[in-house]
Write a structure and sequence with these properties.
- By secondary structure, this protein is α+β, with helices and mostly antiparallel strands.
- The protein has four helices and seven strands, in the order βααβββββαβα.
- The strands form two sheets. A five-stranded antiparallel beta sheet has the order 3-2-5-6-7. A two-stranded antiparallel sheet has the order 1-4.
- The longest helix has 10 residues.
Length: about 130
């Protein structure tokens, strides 16, 4: 697909760029009105998009903003998919997501340990 007038279906591009696992999921998100193309809500999965269009959509807990750089010919590996767009999303601060609790290898606290926690915890008697 060459030339400035080259276009591709929105749901197909989102799937090829690996933002959605299946093309059906991409189509459902577009149909539900969760995707914007150049600031305008897209209502049809068959809407044509091309290079330089800006897409805004939710992905997990983040809102992604991407500019289409190229139109793909297939759903390839991740490095190939990442070459299809320019990510305009603000980088997520590292302290925004708390780290997962670590396993200390001790198992369940004993009754004695729980009493110590209760005495030192909030609401403990002074």
């Amino acid at each position: 697909m060459d030339g400035p007038s080259a276009k591709i279906r929105l749901d197909k591009w989102l799937w090829q760029a690996r933002f959605f696992k299946t093309r059906t999921l991409a189509a459902k998100e577009v149909s539900a009105g969760h995707v914007r193309v150049n600031g305008t809500r897209a209502s049809k999965p068959a809407q044509a998009v091309g290079p330089e269009d800006v897409l805004t959509f939710a992905q997990g807990a983040r809102v992604r903003v991407v500019r289409i750089a190229e139109l793909g010919t297939r759903r390839g590996p991740a490095p190939e998919a990442q070459a299809l767009y320019e990510d305009l999303t603000d980088p997520e601060p590292k302290d925004a997501v708390p780290p997962a609790p670590k396993y200390e290898g001790k198992g369940r606290p004993t009754k004695r340990d729980r009493r110590k926690l209760d005495l030192n915890g909030p609401g403990a008697l002074d």
